[in-house]
Amino acid sequence: MLLTINDVSIFADGLDHPECIAVHLDGSVWAGGEAGQIYRVSPDGKSIEEVNTTNGFVLGIAFSPDASWLAVCDLKNKCVWKLDINTKALTKFATGANGETFNIPNYLAFTKDGRLFVTDSGAFRQVNGKIYCFDAAGNGQVWHKGPFSFANGLALSANEDYLYVACTWLPGVERIAINADGSAGKRDVFCTLPQTCPDGIAFDAQENLYVSCYAPNSIYKVSNRGEVSLLINDWEAHTLSNPTNIAFGGEDFDQLFTSNLGRWHISKINLNTVGLKLPCHQFA
Known about the structure:
single chain; 284 residues; Neuraminidase; four-stranded antiparallel sheet; 26 strands; 0% helix
């Protein structure tokens, strides 16, 4: 079903060009800013708190399975930070692994048992992206050497048997099988999205994949069979303006929140489709 811009509203305004977004178990919506800000937005969107700052440029963020800390990718500082949700303290979690350092740590996804996948996009217009994997203590490895064409957004299948990765300059989405021992298995192209720049991805409960694009200002829906359809497009680029990352949330978990790198707000789409709950949403 093709949505219109009337299905989208401004959820919270006054953020500094937010690239990323994540929804906490308590319903709050978190985002980052281009000067390193880490924001918490109240569930009703009326209150914005700057929780801390990395003094860098915040890219992807993700909550740990127990929702006690937030993993934060930082472009400028080339690291992943750990933000303690209770104390608001910020500590450096990882700068790379296997003797390799991050170039563009871009996006993250937690498994149920606490492993953390991180994309390193590589370099602009070069096919040299890779994927790291870390344990809860920050010990890691290069999980897949790629090379990927600007590895970006990540999403795990419901059974955690596949890892999906948005590749901005493919452009499209690849998927990698996760072997029983946790190692990387077969890699293939799940879908291509010509003349787009895919950035963020998220699954609904039926494992349809939603892909937000930095350009054009669109979100696509890809069925679990790989069939691509346009969900929404904002040709004016005012309500959806370079929508980079997306996350499901809301009282019934059927609203899709989007960051807008091109502007200063978070958008909310009344999707009326329940999202796939991440490990942090299953914690009790």
